[in-house]
Structures are given as C-alpha cells and as structure tokens.
Specification:
Layout lengths: L12 E6 L3 E6 L8 E5 L4 E4 L22 E3 L4 E3 L2 H9 L3 H17 L14 H19 L8 H16 L5 H16 L4 H5 L11 H17 L2 H6 L2 H11 L3 E5 L8 E6 L7 E2 L5 E6 L2 E6 L8 E4 L10 H12 L6 H4 L4
Parallel strand pairs: 9-12
Antiparallel strand pairs: 1-2, 2-12, 3-11, 4-8, 5-6, 7-8, 10-11
Helix pairs in contact: 2-5, 3-7, 4-7, 5-7
Length: 345
C-alpha cells in the first residue's frame, strides 16, 4: 500500500486509496468549473532528449516549433530562451555541478550516445535488476574507498575502465545520464523533496529491456567518476535505481504547447501531480506552464467525487480499443471508467 503521509493535501482535495487503482485524488468539497485545483511545481527528475537540446529551453521548457533558441551553450550541450532563464539555470548549479554537464558533453562528442530501442524486448525481472545493480554498487564502493578523501588516481583509472567497457558495448546514453543527473541535483538542491519521491508507487520492472538496465548502470559509472564527492554520495546505486522505479508510473510527458502536443521531447516526475488517476472522460484538465503543471476543473465536481485527468492527451478521441491498447502499452493497465464500460466508444 502506498505511503500517503507525503501526499499533497489542500482544502479542495485529499488523497485516499481506491479499489483497483492505488491512490486517487478526491474532492473534499464541491468544486466549480474552472477552479485551479492544484499547481505542481516540484519537478524532481526529468530529461530533455538530446536531439532537442538546441530547441527546448533547459530552464522553462519553452519550445517554438523547432526554432533554434537564441542562447546556446555548446560547452554544456544546452540552450535557453533568454538571459533570465540562463541565469536561473546557472543559479541552480555550483561550479562542480556545471563541470559534470561539460564532462557529459565531452563524452558524447568523443563516443556518441546510444538511444536505440529493441522491439518486443523482454523486461528484466526484479531478481536480474537487483543482481546487476548490486554488482555495480560493489564495484564502485570498492573503488571509491573512503568518501572523505576522494578518488585516488588508480581508482579513477579503474572507474574509467568500467565506463569505457560500457561505451564500447554501445551502452552509453546521454539521455539516461541527463535523467539521473537531474535527479541527483534536485535531491542536492532540495533534500526535503526526497521523501515525496519515495512515497510514489513503485514499478518492480521499470526497464524496457536488459540493455535499458545496463545503460542506467553505465550512467552510474559515469556519474561515480565525474561527480564531486558530495554529489557522488547522493548518486548511489540504490538512489538511482529507486528513482527509475518511481519514474515509470509517475512521469508526465514534456510536449510542445501550441500544437496539441505533437512534439514529445522529454518527460519528468512531479511527485505531487502523480496522484491523479486516469479517466477517459476526465473532470479535470492539466496544462503545463513552464516547469509546473496546473490542474483545473473541467466541469463542476461534487464533494467526494474522484478528481481525474486523462493520460492520453491528444488521443482522447480515439476508439475504446485503441485507447486501452495505448494505456496498456504505456501505463500497463486497462481502463474501466464509465466511458469504457458503456456503449459510448
């Protein structure tokens, strides 16, 4: 059963367990159409795909139909839409943190980044996941020695060898490193947010394939080698595997805003936003505003009614069989809402 002690609460809604759907958001009182129910500003982990690095602002997530942004930073492999966003992004990173983004860009330029997926790949089970992460953690722990003294030259050399082996095997992914690094930095900047991440529903098989799992371990080797000691202690194998397990069922796609979300350029985890369940006829709309999600009542909501959103976005108009096929593929559940149970396709 999910831990609800870290769940968001307000005078408008509360969180409680629901039969067959984990936990859900329920109205404490009648809510009028158009009411802002919740604003989620707690982005705790995210990734912007590398292919969009010159088109999506790394601070406010703004995108203008594929146009290259005016301020580009090739040393760190990113772009921003304004000097204000540039200042805000830099403000979140001390010099050591900034250096890791430079190391990532250098690594990608040197070896490339693999993002290929395999159709119909078998998801690794919990035992395989636990075994591979345990082996990786033991290797890194033996090499890092005493955290207070940092890495010795010979230890750095051996970590570099582990990373090189992963690169040679085609397992290095800039997108995976970006996701893990953003999660580490979020916990570093706001450690009080971590319990809310831990409270999210966990997926015991979050990797799409064994290759996907091994890419996350390759990223762990990279961060263990490149992060300053304080951040390297945060970026443990346990922390990174935990974030991945919470991400799969709780992430929100980061899409373009002015074309119906046709462009998908990343995803993120906003813990307080993850408690809204899906309905194919939702009573609440969600809208991304910069780095936040705003939830507004789509119609009048009665007291004690569950507050639901759509997980389908622009695909809401498709037929029932297509909706459920998409929900099963992406979210691994079959919808049993009134619209799906009724005659209305």
């Amino acid at each position: 059963m999910a831990n609800l002690s870290e769940a968001p609460q307000s005078e408008l809604f509360g969180i409680r367990q629901t039969p067959g759907a984990g936990r859900g958001v329920f109205a404490r009182q009648a809510i009028a159409k158009g009411t802002a129910i919740h604003v989620a500003d707690d982005l705790s982990a995210h990734v912007l795909f590398r292919e969009y690095r010159n088109e999506v602002c790394w601070q406010c997530l703004w995108y203008d139909r594929g146009k290259r942004l005016p301020i580009r930073d090739p040393d760190h492999g990113l772009a921003v839409c304004s000097e204000d966003c540039q200042g805000r992004w830099i403000e979140r990173h001390d010099p050591d943190c900034l250096s890791v983004w430079r190391h990532l860009e250098t690594q990608v330029k040197r070896s490339g980044s693999n993002t290929d997926e395999f159709a119909n790949a078998v998801r690794p089970g919990p035992a395989e996941i636990e075994s591979k992460w345990r082996t990786a953690a033991q290797a890194v722990q033996q090499l890092r020695g005493c955290p207070k003294r940092g890495l010795l030259k010979k230890e750095k050399k051996e970590l570099a060898r582990l990373l090189a082996a992963s690169v040679d095997a085609g397992l290095f992914s800039a997108d995976v490193v970006s996701f893990q690094l953003n999660a580490v930095l979020s916990r570093h900047v706001d450690p009080g947010q971590w319990p809310a991440t831990l409270a999210l529903e966990e997926d015991s098989r979050p990797y799409s394939s064994t290759t996907d799992l091994e890419r996350h371990i390759a990223s762990y080797y990279f961060l263990s080698l490149m992060l300053p000691d304080e951040l390297a202690q945060i970026a443990s194998a346990e922390m990174l595997s935990t974030v991945k397990g919470r991400e799969v069922r709780n992430s929100f796609g980061i899409r373009s805003l002015d074309d119906g979300g046709c462009e998908f350029f990343g995803w993120g985890v906003w813990p307080s936003a993850s408690y809204f369940n899906h309905n194919c006829d939702p009573n609440t709309d969600k809208e991304r505003v910069g780095r936040t999600w705003v939830f507004k009542a789509k119609r009048d909501i009665a007291a004690d009614e569950e507050i639901c959103i759509s997980y389908l976005g622009k695909d809401m108009s498709i037929l029932r069989e297509e909706r459920n096929a998409l929900l099963k593929k992406t979210w691994r559940f079959e919808c049993v809402c009134q619209r799906c149970r009724g005659k209305d396709e």
